Amino acid sequence: MTTLNTELRTFYEARQQQIPAKVREIMRRSGQELADSGQADRALAVGDRAPRFTLPTATGESRSLDDLLAAGPVVLTFYRGAWCPYCNLALRALQQHHDTITARGARLIAVSPQIPDESLTLTEKHDLAFDVLSDIGSDTAKQYRLAFDLPDDLAAVYDKLGFDLQRTNDGHPRTLPLPATYVIDRTGTIRWAFVNTDYTTRAEPADILAALAALG
Asked: pLDDT for 169-193, tens place per residue?
């Protein structure tokens, strides 16, 4: 069975052929600077208390972490947005394992800095059965110490690629979360964590399921 990260690597290698060398270098340098910044090491980790939040769903409802935890453990994943093809691959992989996650008594929640309309489009396009929440301004991502600001040259590249983060992120075009996934137990304690500055690498669904099984 092909793993998510094998699929992501295959996509990455194919995509590199389509990106001009100058743009590839900007992406490479920005990624290295983010890795060297120590941002991933500062993010919340196993043993930390999960910060509480209440965020809107794609359909205008709201979800609070407290209410979710009252029903069982939570799998919380942060992604950059529907414009990011690596995020879409990761969310589709989670959807494929959604029934197994819920069978373990857990609730899967995805969070991005996008407006609800963008989340709704994403949910419908990929037929997602789990809630996609809008963290406008990345306030929740900041609490989990995942938020960072794009450097000028990379932001300019994204503009040229037509991502229009000014619109989709409701006036907060430069701030994004690191890709991260947490398994949070019913007491609100983080029991498993995946955080990486490399947006082409994501938490494997099999590892998430193993972490849920370890909760007992």
From this structure: 999 999 999 999 999 999 999 999 9
The DSSP call for residue 137 is G
Q: Specify whether the CB–CB gap between 51 and 143 falls below 8 A.
A: yes
CB 135 within 8 A of CB 155: no
Q: Would you say residue 51 has pLDDT above 80?
A: yes
The full set of domain ranges for the chain reads: 4-214
In angstroms, the CA 194 to CA 120 distance is: 25
Is the CA virtual torsion 68, 95, 177, 118 positive or negative? negative
Q: Which neighbouring-strand residues pair with 134?
A: 112
pTM over 0.85: yes
153-163: per-residue pLDDT in tens? 999 999 999 99
Q: What angle do CA 165, 161, 143 make, to 5 degrees?
A: 30
4-214 CATH: 3.40.30.10
Rounded Cα distance, 46 and 111, in Å: 19
Q: Are strands 190-195 and 180-184 parallel, antiparallel or unpaired?
A: antiparallel
